[in-house]
Amino acid sequence: MNVVIKLKLIPTIIFITISIAGIGAALTSYYYVYMANTSPPACHFSGNITSSGIELNCLNVLKSSYSSLSLNFGVKVNANFDVLAIIYFSVSLILSLMMLFTYYSVIAQYIWSIIGASFIPYLVYLEIYVIRSICIYCTTMHILIISQVLLSLYYIKSKKLI
Q: Coil, strand or helix: which one is 82?
């Protein structure tokens, strides 16, 4: 196998894996909360996980009034954050596949992941200080997005995809 192809293939596989994991986490939480109307697996802990009274409870987070983004473009649209996460990681998957063909898709991936990461501080603030519950699926997706930012920045700086 050509060395250039190997250098492109490894980061591409990493980004594809992150994207698929993100889609899986978003689909799992969406299915259990909105289709099955129950808590996702491994997402409820009876009692507080900290001395300040913060719970591990996805239902509290995903069923809260903060679980969707209201947009008004002349027509009011409520976009659920799980649906937005599915869209986000799907676009990320497409950008990851494009990494095989062009270096500029890494730059696009970096910009896209910065956009995704810009929501994380606000969402974590809502979970900890407003809702007082933490969703393990949300946290997983936050970690995946931050990983995308760091990895894409690394590959841009090292130019390992040229």
A: helix
Structure tokens at 101: 């063909």
pTM: 0.86
Structural domain containing residue 66: 3-158
| 22-57 residue pLDDT tens | 999 999 999 998 898 888 887 766 655 566 778 888
Residue 80's φ and ψ, nearest 5 degrees, are: -70, 140
According to DSSP, residue 73 is labeled S
Q: Cα separations (Å) of 73 from 81, 88, 96?
A: 18, 20, 30
Strand partners, 76: 72
Count the domains in the chain.
1
Residues 52, 58, 63, 67, Cα dihedral to 10°: 90
Give the span between the Cα atoms of 108 and 92, in whole angstroms.
9
> At 63, which CATH number?
1.20.1440.130
